[in-house]
Design a protein that fits this description.
The chain is mainly beta and 401 residues long. Helix content is 8%, strand content 32%.
Length: 401
């Protein structure tokens, strides 16, 4: 595959009446419609997703996909920060550059990355730190895109160890951080490009990879083709898409994305009283324990005595899921669900429960997860101004007739 254009041409764009059509990705993107917001749209190579913005594209995965542990590539959510995103990448021209506080500056093609370093794979959940933000509205609406459940997904990521790439360039002894920059660009000079950094020890000694595949296929261009940083257990703000430059630093990176963006109150609940600003903040890092109901849909109607399978997924920052509990009486009592296969500590864990109603009427279904560190999903998440890290209990209603 010589370029992203050819990949899109062969795999994403449709042929009409047998005639091959050569288009750029940008020609086929839907546009926002304030009369129908958010609306369901279909981007090239994607299933029907919920769109909150068209520039940059912000696309949410429907709830029904979260009854299975692995999220299909075509249904995987999309979140970019800057409007000028890559619509095609020519692999003849593209290079990954490793520079800064290293023994030698390195410039690598994708083929070189694949041939020089050992491939590794693991399942990991990618979740926007604002996922579930809309559920804060019953307290006070937090600023930002009003995501529901679907700004998350789980995939099998395949790539090379970040540590191997850094060691190939030779990290100098006094290095403190590693900064990552992708191909998306700001539309105006005064808007800072996305560049974020991680501690050097995390980059050298933890499970970070530079992925070129998700679920056995090349990354979709909307999800970070040709190379994406994978930071398992941490929120998506650290998972830089379309990585093109890695800079090793001997000082802290100080910019908007590190000093202001994606900060939470620096306390145990990462929360403050409604409407107040925190006196001290910290950058968002690890995900918290969470579970979501995938099926059935909210307000599903079932007959008395009919058995219905309630299924979903649970996950955390990497300890692994111990139990998922379910309640049908408003949280007064909880029953254990059955867990699906363990795909790894960073993965979604499927859970399911067969429910057979014995009385007519409305049944409120609640689920909560407990991880292997003993952390329990709270009934409600504490409020913060950015609407970050929501992990309150998910609920649906089943109408028994």
């Amino acid at each position: 595959m010589s370029s992203r254009r050819e990949f899109l041409k062969s795999s994403l764009l449709l042929a009409v009446a047998g005639l091959t059509m050569k288009k750029s990705f940008a020609e086929d993107v839907p546009s926002i419609d304030l009369q129908d917001y958010p609306k369901v749209v279909k981007y090239p190579g994607k299933a029907d997703l919920i769109m909150y913005s068209d520039r940059p594209p912000l696309l949410e995965t429907p709830r029904s996909y979260f009854s299975k542990a692995v999220t299909p590539n075509e249904a995987f959510f999309v979140r970019w920060h800057l409007s000028n995103i890559p619509t095609e990448v020519d692999l003849k021209e593209w290079r990954l550059t490793i520079t800064g506080n290293v023994n030698k500056t390195v410039s690598l093609t994708l083929d070189e990355i694949k041939s020089l370093f050992e491939p590794v794979s693991y399942y990991a959940v990618l979740q926007c730190s604002g996922n579930g933000r809309s559920f804060f509205e019953k307290k006070q609406t937090a600023l930002g895109i009003q995501w529901k459940h679907g700004a998350m997904g789980n995939a099998l990521w395949t790539g090379v160890r970040l540590a191997d790439v850094l060691n190939y360039a030779g990290v100098k002894w006094d290095s403190l951080e590693v900064a990552f920059k992708g191909l998306d660009k700001a539309p105006y000079p005064q808007t800072p490009d996305v560049e974020r950094s991680l501690p050097i020890d995390k980059c050298l000694y933890e499970d970070l990879i530079l992925a070129y595949e998700m679920n056995g296929e090349p990354l979709h261009i909307l999800n970070g083709f040709p190379l994406r940083l994978i930071v398992p257990g941490w929120y998506a703000t650290h998972w830089i898409k379309s990585v093109t430059t890695i800079t090793v630093l001997n000082q802290e990176l100080k910019n908007f994305w590190m000093e202001e963006a994606y900060h939470i109150p620096d306390n145990a609940c990462h929360c403050v009283p409604i409407g107040q600003k925190p006196s001290k903040t910290r950058i968002i890092t690890q995900m918290n324990v969470k579970s979501v109901i995938g099926t059935p849909e909210d307000n599903t109607v079932v007959k008395l005595g009919q058995t219905v399978k309630i299924a979903g997924v649970a996950f955390d920052q990497g300890y692994g899921i111990q139990d998922v509990l379910i309640s049908f009486d408003g949280g007064k009592s909880w029953k254990p669900t059955s867990l699906g296969p363990d795909l790894g500590r960073y993965s979604f864990r499927e859970w399911y429960y067969y429910f057979r109603p014995t009385t007519k009427g409305e049944v409120k279904v609640m689920v909560r997860a407990i991880n292997k560190n003993g952390e329990t999903q709270p009934i409600e998440a504490g409020w913060n101004p950015g609407g970050y890290m929501w992990n309150g209990i998910d609920t649906i209603k089943i109408n028994v007739v």
